[in-house]
## 1
Amino acid sequence: MRFMETPDTPDQPTEPAAAAEPANGTAADQPTGIAAQDWATASAEPQYRAAVVDLLGALAYGELAAFERLADDAKLAPTLGDKAALAKMAAAEFHHFERLTDRLRAIDAEPTGAMEPFAKALDDFHRLTAPSDWLEGLVKAYVGDSIASDFYREVAARLDTDTRALVLAVLDDTGHGNFAVEKVRAAIEAEPRVGGRLALWARRLMGEALSQAQRVVADRDALSTMLVGGVADGFDLAEVGRMFSRITEAHTKRMAALGLAA
Amino acid sequence: MRFMETPDTPDQPTEPAAAAEPANGTAADQPTGIAAQDWATASAEPQYRAAVVDLLGALAYGELAAFERLADDAKLAPTLGDKAALAKMAAAEFHHFERLTDRLRAIDAEPTGAMEPFAKALDDFHRLTAPSDWLEGLVKAYVGDSIASDFYREVAARLDTDTRALVLAVLDDTGHGNFAVEKVRAAIEAEPRVGGRLALWARRLMGEALSQAQRVVADRDALSTMLVGGVADGFDLAEVGRMFSRITEAHTKRMAALGLAA
């Protein structure tokens, strides 16, 4: 899903080896527990297996929804070149979707079944935050994907080595981030009052994203258990709080880089 | 663009060697003139070069528009599996678009400039034929792509070897044809009166496609000259008439195969 990333995103590991470094600062430098195991070993624990199926299902549906959103935004593109650029991003999201559903099938999980629990939350998010113009679409793609990517990277550090490699691969920056940043910055420079409107829009996006995420976590036991502890290297609740702080902080920095007050 | 093809599409060559066979029945079995030359030789003729740039531009914009249409139709999909199937087709169209624009750049033509003359006709076609439901979308994709593919295959036989190989590659059936045929047939079997509505819809699509195609041909000198003669192996006007007959006939057969009266 991650296709936009500012060069200055702080403290986000980009390689599997670095990502395995624990983010909570309490563990040792070397991965331990699940994070040191491969899928064959880790999946012997049924609750861990269920959590990974949930995670891959949520991620896969997110990619499919991102594909649709980008294809939609392509219609708002002011030039043919912009349209082609968005179509390219949409196609990249679709290929991430395919890798995730291939993986679900490979671990004997039915992709549709794995995605369905997350369809409503993601559809609602996109319905409630339909951009009204090209710039709102760019800000949404940038903000939404950055937050989702930060979140999945935090989770990835706690996954088995095989699942982690896949998750990091589909979050890999495909170099499109600069596209949104450049276009939005140029628009604000040309007409500064656009910045105020887009800053409000970014705040609304963050609010809707958090409220849908909360709903998903409340609904999905396996996933939540992995996140808040109980399975192997899960977070404790205080750590979840710190994780949200880190994500919010990174968001604030990205908004500033974009010329927007967060 | 071709992603749907009935197994019984008549007389449509599928390989470059076969496609080089003249369709007007007057020439010999071996390609002659332009059809026997490679791009380096054929493009020495400026009018031929301009016609190919037009053709690739029209085809590229068609792929981009098809991408958008399929991504849009994915929203109407009744199931997650159907949605994923349409997204896959859309991504395939985008990759065809990329091959065509890469080729335009390789022959020193600016892709945007090459596409722009065809944008309005294709946009108008899609605007005037926006499907109101999932089945209309499937019929449109099937009918529209089949007709476009028949047309480009006829033209391909008259192109230089390099351009012909590219055009046939992007028209290559990616195996999605059966998807639309199966879904539409099943819907008509389940509710026969759906067939009458879809038959009317297919006729309207054919009418709009022909009227936009006519507009393009009237506007674009280089392309028209290649089609109606004047450059190398161009058609004569009687041959254009026969070509339209062949395309209409193939359309009628496809509609019958779909369970629709054409």
## 2
Amino acid sequence: MNHLADLVAALPAGRVLTDPDVAGAYARDQTFLPPGTPLCAVVAESRDDVVTTLRWATEHRVPVVPRGAGTGLAGGATAVEGCVMLSMIRMTAVRELSPADEIAVVEPGVITADLDRAARAHGLMYAPDPSSYEISTIGGNLATNAGGLRCVKYGVTRDSVLGLEVVLPDGRVLATGRRTMKGVTGYDLTGLFVGSEGTLGVITAATLRLRRAPETPPATFAAEFPSLRAAGDAVAAIIAAGCRPSLLELMDRNTLKAIDDWKNIGLEPGVRAMLIGQSDDGVPGAAERMAALCEENGATFVAATSSPDEAEELIGVRRLAYQAKERLGTCLVEDVCVPRSALPVMISEIEAAAERHGALISTVAHAGDGNLHPVFIFERGLAEPPPHVWAAADDVFRAALRLGGTLTGEHGVGVLKRRWLDLERGEVSGDVQRGIKNVFDPLGIMNPGKAI
Amino acid sequence: MNHLADLVAALPAGRVLTDPDVAGAYARDQTFLPPGTPLCAVVAESRDDVVTTLRWATEHRVPVVPRGAGTGLAGGATAVEGCVMLSMIRMTAVRELSPADEIAVVEPGVITADLDRAARAHGLMYAPDPSSYEISTIGGNLATNAGGLRCVKYGVTRDSVLGLEVVLPDGRVLATGRRTMKGVTGYDLTGLFVGSEGTLGVITAATLRLRRAPETPPATFAAEFPSLRAAGDAVAAIIAAGCRPSLLELMDRNTLKAIDDWKNIGLEPGVRAMLIGQSDDGVPGAAERMAALCEENGATFVAATSSPDEAEELIGVRRLAYQAKERLGTCLVEDVCVPRSALPVMISEIEAAAERHGALISTVAHAGDGNLHPVFIFERGLAEPPPHVWAAADDVFRAALRLGGTLTGEHGVGVLKRRWLDLERGEVSGDVQRGIKNVFDPLGIMNPGKAI
């Protein structure tokens, strides 16, 4: 452990946490995977701290697992045996916020919703809004290329990133991208780091694109359907009509039932799905137009409003979804994405998999993007999902791929999805990705065993 | 030349053009750089043709320069000595166009505007619209990550690409990306290929994102300004007001004068800049609102219209810009991009460089993106730009970098910008990019000497 003493000596006091219980608190994310035992945790406060830590890790061949708030759902930030858990949570500076250029330069520990609020003070917004955005960090969002509810209009995290500052495993500092809206000098290294789950280097700053915040509150609708197929048709009709929703969320019967059992929302027996949508374009009648398309496609109940309070009530139902499910057991939150037209078929496939394996699955979907979160609910107290849950998940993943979809829309591969990875990417892609990993991290110390 | 006989034998009849004059016709793009002499040209008609050609090239270590329509402005598709010019112009299939999923799968030889027209038949559009889009190909647009006039609202080519099929130099076929709107399985190889200027492999198909076409014709305005600073202020005001223009083009006095000398547009003596903009949001009064913001910022004349014919007249002035300049001499079309707030300063820098070196520069800008095209006009008949032009260009590039900008917003590095490349990207980035190049192209046969 002399190595560790070197690290403690090289960093300012208090940065290295060597007490096993303390370091252990940094060892897991929101997955139930049993983590390895970290050697220590380092809580970085500056780029220099990161450089020092990585140089030391390179010298001594110690694996490094970077982490933000630990809200990940795929195991990307779980400890590997003997690693340094490198927490970025204290690097919280907003280095710059330029309303004129509509950009912000931030450190990775900034909470996503905090950046959004800082931007709104200038009439701007930071668009990416993963469900965790009140507690997750920009750095974690970058590592997984996080999505969110507003993606359907504003795109994923990648679409809001212009440039990065990255510390490579050997301690060199790499600047990628630029401050400008456009630019094609050299390969797109920015895109390479976004979504790389900490396997190539550690992001210490990001130049992010802000957007004009809508001037009026969004118009909101909700609709209940007697079948998932009808709800899927309504989604297609809304997109085809050019409604440009800024949010379009689908909940299945199991989700609605879990919410109803908890909060008594008056769920009618025949309701099989609910769609909730918003438009922030400021076009009068936008919510009513989407609601009318739902009715044309078989909705049995619709409501539309421009009142923020009423909107909050409708959206509030969606916000309860995860908590309602957690009341029923331990949740494995999954994340497949299919071409939008395949959404109804994918939901049927999920239902069939649930029945086939006797699994309880309840699904919410970012419907406008074809991104589904089937939540597998199982008995509390188990260390990991039981075999019938994995068997159902396996069916769901294979169905998504068969429908032209992907294993993960916005959560990342982490550890959880690695065993399915080669079904999607093929051999050549795997070779190329390992080659790229080797360019940045020839010793394989950056978050080994994750993502690729 | 036995090697060449092998290639001729391996490909279907007619694919290999060995006559030096015929092959030479494929040797250059729209730059005036003297190209090398190609060994031959191959006009591929299928992915198999590309695989055969690259396998042969790998076996015999022959450089390969892929090309589309040859409309590039940075020399990316100019021949290197003894290379195969690999033309993709005959791979023109639209393999799929799905209105439900809003995607198209196309081969690289498809003309960009043709895809846009095919999409519009379904109420959709293909958003990227480089000025060359009636003659340039999707493959060429992908290679340079082409921009265009609509970028200000819809982003660059990268923002419309979901996945690629690529033949690697050793003949292996790589599939990148996906058909879905979101996805984070593995590193972003799609982004890596877009803008890589043919240095990593040859794109043989692309899955592209289409968008809903606006339902009403765009609303258009034009405004004349007594100073560039005033026009720059108007741009800032339009963006800050959340107008979301779908086009926002700036022309300087030299550009207007060239157009006036040719077509007599009645240019007033005091006019130093013109701004032309459009909104396709369908919001009533959108053009009038932008025009009013121009007036508030000092415009001496404004016009706004929703009539397609009148719009065509206003936009027509912008369309004449390049041809008007070509009447005056040979044009070096440059392509710097700066943060939007630096646009007026950058224009002043361009004017100062012109005066300092006695160069004639006339500038158009995609103003909403901060992307400027200073066009250096010099004496016809010269093989390449004279020293005073390069000296002025050097000043312009350095000024753009000083202002936080980039050497190229949408044309690429090609050959023309290589000597300035290290000023922008720094040593670590150069190392990493060469490392990535080596993963895909260890023999260095793909478009050597270009881009990185």
## 3
Amino acid sequence: MSTPGTLTSERILEAAEETLRRFGPAKTTVVDVARALGVSHGSVYRHFPTKADLRDAVVDRWLRRMHPALAAVADGAGSAPERLRLLLWTLAETKWTRAQDDPEFFAAFAELADEARTPVVAHVDFVVAQLTKVITEGVARGEIASDDPAATARALFDATGRFHHPSARSEWVRPRIDASFEGVWTLLRNGLLPRGSS
Amino acid sequence: MSTPGTLTSERILEAAEETLRRFGPAKTTVVDVARALGVSHGSVYRHFPTKADLRDAVVDRWLRRMHPALAAVADGAGSAPERLRLLLWTLAETKWTRAQDDPEFFAAFAELADEARTPVVAHVDFVVAQLTKVITEGVARGEIASDDPAATARALFDATGRFHHPSARSEWVRPRIDASFEGVWTLLRNGLLPRGSS
């Protein structure tokens, strides 16, 4: 048994990810996570009072790991349309890679994410905020036409759901999904450019 | 026991839909369907030699039921962009309504459709062909810009996956999904119009 002092939330979340990968969400209990750590389930509950809290923290941790890369693209060099493309591509490709390399974890993650409204909404808001920032800059520079950058950002996110929503993962067969992304992006890019440009 | 003469494929498929609605795909067997019809499972196998054949026929029947309405929109009046919008809307809204009115059947259907590649591919091809026809007409009339109407049609289909793919059904909460559709459509419409028009 570890002492409570050594049991950090981070260690619990790592153990929870590993337990989920092995048993799946339906069969993973707080007791399993505690057993993997060699602690009592009471020790886990002190960090995550309910199973829903633990579930939300696992999903939140995984989604937040993508955020630095997305923010770097949004704040990076290149025209606004190029950065939008790279933002959406990074969001999608990170998930394709993880779903392919670690299908057991990704299937568990997708099932949890379907229930974990709070971290998912926070993640979507973060991505839409990055897109909005780039669109707003693009409008100021005359690279993009939009009366409402936040609404345009949300539309871009929704129109690319097939590429980044975990429930669409059965469609992520490469290279077919790459070609599908390019086709959708071409259409969206045309929709973003100011009329009269090409 | 009915005589084989009275047991049509159509009757079997009706019984299969009802059995699926009640028990779900995992628990539905050919024997259950035969029992609901009061026939031997051998009689069902004469029409559908494998469980996969029966599954594909159920999915095919449901998807084909939408086709006359979609073809009527494609061949109907209105500008090409208006018809594309109505085609995509009809495709989406038919599924939203069914998923809401009959969630047990729709969940079963979604699960089956994930396995039933042949009828799903045929359905997607049908929808993309309708979109292609309208885009081709729109290009001829100067209402739409596209170098490759079939590729543009596929991109429209893919960019609206959130609205019509059964795996996205947890997102179909009205009126939020209606607003999302309008936002995506505005962007796609801008992407379709010839540069210089508005």
